Amino acid sequence: MSEHRNAEGPDHHGAVGARMRRFRKERGLTLRGLATHSGLSIGFLSQVERGISSIGLTALNSVAAALDRSVAEFFSDEPAEGAERPATVSPLPSHFTLTRSATAATEYMSGQQTYRMLSARGPNLVLEPLLVRIAPGGRREDAYGHAGEEFAFVLEGELLYEVDGVEHRLYPGDSVHLRSTVPHSMFNDTDRVTTVVSVVTPRLF
């Protein structure tokens, strides 16, 4: 997999928000319209577009679907990887992928969060395994429900995980597994980076 780091300077969530605003206007949608189609609040979307708040990948996936875009397009102006595969390239196996540690991993950055892809693409595979690093600070994302399932396992640091209005503090070795339709959010309220292995469905990229 190729390196896909956001190269737009330290204001990574600002770049994501700017693309969100551009894509929204291209679709002729107001913030209210985008909120209706994505299930996110107008206030939160406004903060993301202005670079005040970052947005998690699962919430961004709902925005992308509402705007008929891929999630990857919010991190780069280049076409999503594999969007136009040459006819001479063999198709990926439908049942299996193998990702070596020496393979350059794709990373996406949004505000305080860096997402490292842990597996190659497989057309019939539904899990999205990620290594997530959450820097301290930033604004807390609104609790949000969406289709699928979600699992998070804390490797380092602490994580405040809200599920259905109840806050749970997770420490290294703790995990949470939920139906993603239940409103949830995660936040690092400490002064050090938190590292989490996260697995979500459906795939985001």
Task: Give a written overview of the molecule.
It is a single chain. This protein folds into 2 domains: 12-74, Orthogonal Bundle (434 Repressor (Amino-terminal Domain)); 107-200, Jelly Rolls (Sandwich). Helix content is 20%, strand content 24%. The protein is built from 4 helices and 9 strands; from the N terminus they run H-H-H-H-E-E-E-E-E-E-E-E-E. A 6-stranded antiparallel beta sheet has the order 1-2-3-9-4-7. A 3-stranded antiparallel beta sheet has the order 6-5-8, with no helix packed on it. The protein is globular. Mean pLDDT is 84; it is low at 1-11 and 79-87.
pLDDT < 50 stretches:
1-11, 79-87
Instruction: Give the averaged pLDDT, no decimals.
Output: 84
- Please work out how many helical segments DSSP would assign: 4
Strand content: 15-25%
Sheet with the most strands, sense and barrel status: 6 strands, antiparallel
Percent helix range: 10-25%
Highest-level CATH class of the largest domain: Mainly Beta
Total of domains: 2
Q: Could you give the count of β-strands?
A: 9
Write the layout of secondary structure elements.
Elements lengths: L11 H15 L4 H8 L3 H8 L7 H10 L40 E4 L2 E5 L10 E7 L14 E8 L2 E5 L2 E5 L4 E5 L4 E4 L6 E7 L5
Antiparallel strand pairs: 1-2, 2-3, 3-9, 4-7, 4-9, 5-6, 5-8
